């Protein structure tokens, strides 16, 4: 990606307003020229080794992350006594045709990231000793994922969200279940996307939203009738950087 199009050269912007239609924002850049991930790395054993013994690599800092830091959002929430630590599970389903990523569609009435596609997860509760505990507990509550079916193999660096959370993405290899019983209050749908699709940079888009405050750039990874963007796409982009390193 050219230096001119890197996040450092974009002015920060505040969070998207209510009713923001990310899918309607024009594509600025298709990342098809970025390095490809080796197909061998996407095999379970090789992926486990890469996650647990990573080479030197650099996470990507998105405009969302920059805005959180510049506006001191997390420190302000902490000063107000609010929980800021959270975790999500990146569930990699062990399927005959290759690994798939299990994702959820959030319900429209939720306060944070309503209607968006996300990983199962949420805020750390006092009884959660580790981010892994949070990710497994929330996954069981939200989609009925049995923790016994999950092998935790590592995590990505924390991702800062504009909603004021420092999120640890926990990576797990998952024995696929026949059925996922999702919490209908929080989760509208549960679906799968091939990991090979999400780790192919040709499927990564950069979109730029122009507002009165300036430009905000975000990643999107449209798949069939699903529009994956924002924090979820940012975390997937970091997984891509780790696997292609």
UniProtKB/TrEMBL annotation:
Its cofactor is Mn(2+); Mg(2+). InterPro entries: CoAse, NUDIX_hydrolase-like_dom_sf, NUDIX_hydrolase_dom. One of its GO terms (molecular function) is coenzyme A diphosphatase activity. The keyword Hydrolase applies. PROSITE patterns: NUDIX (PS51462). Pfam families: NUDIX. SUPFAM superfamilies: Nudix. The keyword Zinc does not apply. Keywords: Hydrolase, Magnesium, Manganese, Metal-binding. This is CoA pyrophosphatase. It comes from Polynucleobacter paneuropaeus.
């Amino acid at each position: 990606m050219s230096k001119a199009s890197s996040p450092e050269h974009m002015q920060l912007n505040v969070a998207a307003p209510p009713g923001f239609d990310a899918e309607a924002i024009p594509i600025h850049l298709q990342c098809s020229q970025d390095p490809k991930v080796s197909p061998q790395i996407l095999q379970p054993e090789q992926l486990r080794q890469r996650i647990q013994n990573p080479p030197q690599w650099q996470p990507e800092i998105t405009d969302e992350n920059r805005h959180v830091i510049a506006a001191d959002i997390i420190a302000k929430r902490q000063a107000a006594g609010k929980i800021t630590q959270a975790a999500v599970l990146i569930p990699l389903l062990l399927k005959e045709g290759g690994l798939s990523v299990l994702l959820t569609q959030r319900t429209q009435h939720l306060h944070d990231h309503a209607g968006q596609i996300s990983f199962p997860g949420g805020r750390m509760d006092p009884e959660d000793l580790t981010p892994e505990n949070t990710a497994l507990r929330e996954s069981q509550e939200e989609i009925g994922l049995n923790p016994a079916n999950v092998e935790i193999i590592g995590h990505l660096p924390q991702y800062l969200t504009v909603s004021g959370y420092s999120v640890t993405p926990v990576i797990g290899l998952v024995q696929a279940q026949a059925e996922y019983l999702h919490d209908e209050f929080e989760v509208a749908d549960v679906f799968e996307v091939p990991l090979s699709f999400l780790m192919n940079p040709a499927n990564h888009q950069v979109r730029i939203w122009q507002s009165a405050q300036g430009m905000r750039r975000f990643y999107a990874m449209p798949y069939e009738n699903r529009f994956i963007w924002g924090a979820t796409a940012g975390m997937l982009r970091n997984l891509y950087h780790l696997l292609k390193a």
